[in-house]
Amino acid sequence: MNFNYRKFKVEIKNLKFTSDEGQVYPKTAIITFLDEFGGQSSVELFGHMDAEEIYRKIEEDRPIVLDHCYITNFSLSIYRKKHKLDEKSRVLLPEFSAHHAFFDTKFGLDFSFAEFSEGDVNFEFSHFANGIVNFNSAIFKNGKVNFSNALFREGDIDFSNVHFGNGDVLFKNSVFFDGKKDFQYADFGEGLTSFANTEFNSGEVSFINAQFGDGQVSFKVARFICGKVDFHFARFRSGNISFERTEFGDCKVDFRTVEFGDGRINFNRAIFGKGDVSFEASQMGSGRFSMKRVNFGEGEKNFELVEFDHSELIFDNSDLGKGNLSFYNSRIGKLYLKSCHLNHYLDLRVSKCEYIDLSDTIARDIIDLQPYDFEVNLKVLNLNGMRLLGRIFIDWNKNEVEKLIRDQEHTSLRQKSEQFRLLKENYQLTGKYEDEDKAYVEFKRSEALADLQEAVTENPMSRIWVWPRFAIQWLVFEKMGKYATAPLRVLLSMLVAYTMFSLLYYVLMLFSDSSIYSSIGDPDKLGPLAVSFYHSAITFLTIGYGDYYPSGFIRVLSGLEGFMGLFMMSYFTVAFVRKILR
Questions:
Q1: Measured CA angle at 374 (ends 368, 376), to 5 deg
Q2: What is the mean pLDDT of residues 323-338?
Q3: 485 φ, ψ to 5°?
Q4: What does the pLDDT average to over 405-429?
Q5: Which helix (H) or strand (E) segment is 33 a member of?
């Protein structure tokens, strides 16, 4: 049937018409389809049945077969008035089929409160040509309901409160013109629900409070232009849900407080325009919510308060557009933002999350992980390969950053060290110098371990010299001063070294030929222990009065202590000045 026409004209002939399925009609309808310039684009033939004949079939409880039929002004509201029925009385439509039918009405097509009998109901390839199409509160019993390839032209479409039984519900490849498409409170039963490749055009599309059963739900490659796409309070159960490659145009997209069940949710390669996108307070059982390679537009992306405790939420390789993205106070099993471009504010202050993957991202704005009015409960954070051009707000202690990086299972020591280095540079830019020192220490620790591990792996024999070198680095850089970040520790290390040399001199004086002599006759009458500590002090501090001088092996130790003192005083100066200058 021709979908691309602007107007049409109908001519009824008193000629018998037989459909391809063998259905015989007493009259023939000749429909001429006109293009935008009024020219003829095509002509099609249909059987013709007026509304009164359909009403008689309803009265007589006979099958209603309207395949390849042109029907005018059909309305169950008119039928009820004629029979003095309540406006909400159910009307039974036995064995209904309207395949390739053409419904034409001046006042709106009305199937409201219809009750279709058991079995399949077929509206495939039908045209709803003019006015409102009303299926409000209709009941479809068990069987397939097929609106595939249907054309809904002018006016609003009302499928609110419709109940579908156990069977597939198909709207795939259908075309809706501009106007409201209302599926509020619809119950789609247990079969496949498909709006795949459906054209919704402009206007509000509402699935508020709609209920979807355990079957699959597909909006794959569906297209919206502008308006609002509203699934607020909708409920999906255990079936898989696909919005793959769906184009949402410039619509505001609302999935607030939706229950997604336990199936797989697929928004891969979907395209969003200028409207806001909200999944606020939505819920999901155990499953996977995938938004890979999604193209987000200019609106805000709201995933606040979502409850995905046992689910994975995946945005890998997505273009997050111009608006902010927020996961504030959400509970998520695992959150993946790998290889995304984070050009705007990203709120990752989750109330609970096992794992957040920001690896290979490019961040140009603020990433916020710093607790504010509640504790951020995060177990693992992966920053491997991030290019940080913006800032990360994260508190070393409150966020337990060391644990976040150390607990990564699938990154190497080298990769962990690079993540600590990135955080060190970030803390410097944000003025959090205490946190910068902590990140720097972890960076150097991880780097040293990575160097050791890589050297031994490359050449097992190298452990003969690599391990001693590592031990010296560990003692001097790590234990003595925490890589020049702890001047008090350097000072304490100086005191320990001074005391050890002093006691060593004393022991050598008692049990060897080594000694410390006075060049001025020892006017203060100092004992051996005092002499040892005094000589150690003037040597360690490189004062060198010359009133006492060593002999024997103590000469060697004195030279070593002088070097140690000079080195450690310089070490202390660097650490102290580093603290003061910041």
A1: 50
A2: 96
A3: -105, -5
A4: 95
A5: strand 27-34
Q: How far apart are the first and last CA of the chain?
A: 77
Half-sphere exposure in the Cβ direction for 545 (13 Å, CA): 10
pLDDT tens, position by position, 363-404: 999 999 998 888 889 999 999 999 999 999 999 999 999 999
Residue that the structure tokens 């202690």 belong to: 397
Ramachandran region, residue 88 (left: φ > 0; alpha: ψ -120 to 50; beta: rest): alpha
Predicted confidence band at 130 (pLDDT cuts at 50, 70, 90)? confident
| Mean pLDDT of the residues in the chain | 92
Using one digit for the tens of pLDDT, what is the confidence trace for 52-87?
Answer: 999 999 999 999 999 999 999 899 999 999 999 998
Cα separation, 244 vs 252, in Å, equals 18
Sign of CA dihedral 18, 23, 29, 30: negative
> What average pLDDT does this structure show over 536-564?
89
| CA–CA gap between residue 172 and residue 377 (Å, rounded) | 43
Q: Is the pLDDT of residue 189 over 70?
A: yes
Amino acid at 157: I
Contact 169, 219 (CB under 8 A): no
The whole-angstrom separation of Cα 580 and Cα 577 is 5
pLDDT category at 476 given cuts 50, 70, 90 is confident
DSSP run (H or E) holding 217? strand 217-218
560 contacts: CB under 8 Å, gap ≥ 6: none
Please tell me the distance from the alpha carbon of residue 190 to that of residue 167, in angstroms, as a whole number: 6
- CA 546 – CA 560 distance, rounded (Å): 17
User: Nearest CA to 277 among 305, 248, 257?
Assistant: 248
- Taking the C-alpha atoms of residue 323 and residue 523, their distance in angstroms, rounded to an integer, is 82
User: Per-residue pLDDT averaged across 413-436, rounded?
Assistant: 95
Distance CA 20, CA 17 (A): 10
Q: According to the 3-state scheme, what is the secondary structure of 442-472?
A: HHHHHHHHHHHHHHHHHCHHHHHHHHHHHHH
Answer for the pair 414, 443: CB distance below 8 angstroms, yes or no: no
Domain coordinates of the chain in residue numbers? Answer: 487-581
Sequence-separated (6 or more) residues with CB below 8 Å from residue 95: 63, 64, 65, 117, 119
Strand order in the sheet with 114-116: 91-93, 114-116, 139-140, 163-164
Query: Using 50, 70 and 90 to split pLDDT, how confident is the model at 578?
Result: confident
Q: Name all contacts of 5-13 with Cβ < 8 Å and 24+ positions apart.
A: 5/33, 5/34, 5/35, 5/41, 5/42, 6/34, 6/35, 6/36, 7/33, 7/34, 7/38, 8/32, 8/33, 8/34, 8/129, 9/34, 10/70, 10/104, 12/48
Q: Detail the DSSP E strand segments found in 264-395.
A: 264-266, 277-278, 288-290, 301-302, 307-314, 325-326, 331-336, 341-342, 346-347, 352-357, 362-363, 366-368, 378-382, 387-388, 391-393
**Selection from 352, 270, 282 nearest residue 317 by Cα:** 270
Length, in residues, of the chain? 582
Q: What is the pLDDT of residue 207?
A: 97
DSSP 3-state of 349: coil
- Choosing among 1.10.287.70, 2.170.150.40, 1.20.200.10, 3.40.50.1980, the CATH entry for 487-581 is 1.10.287.70
**Using CA atoms, how far apart are residues 301 and 325, in angstroms rounded to an integer?**
5
